[in-house]
Design brief:
This protein is mostly helical. The protein has three helices and no strands.
Length: about 100
């Protein structure tokens, strides 16, 4: 595995972790009525979303440097876009 593939693999793992954590945050937000916990969950979700956007921009750069149609960078970009789409679709959760 090349160094860039190793970095991309680490980013893929982080993106999957972000996707799972986002799902857990939204589920916990739905199930609690404690104001302090809701505020912490909202802030954590915001921080996680910012990190996902950072990884998405990195994935775009890595994809533009690759001439191959199928690569780890393509997979990373696709995974980021799917999770971003999923989180934007469920954004209204925090405005119940």
């Amino acid at each position: 595995m090349y160094r860039s593939e190793s970095i991309i693999n680490n980013l893929l793992i982080e993106v999957n972790s972000i996707g799972n954590r986002t799902t857990c945050i939204k589920q916990a937000y739905r199930n609690t009525s404690h104001f302090g916990l809701r505020e912490r969950l909202f802030n954590e979700n915001k921080i996680i979303s910012q990190r996902l956007e950072e990884i998405h921009s990195i994935a775009k750069i890595l994809k533009s440097r690759t001439v191959e149609k199928i690569s780890f960078s393509s997979l990373l970009l696709e995974q980021c876009e799917r999770i971003i789409f999923q989180t934007r679709k469920e954004t209204n959760l925090f405005f119940l």
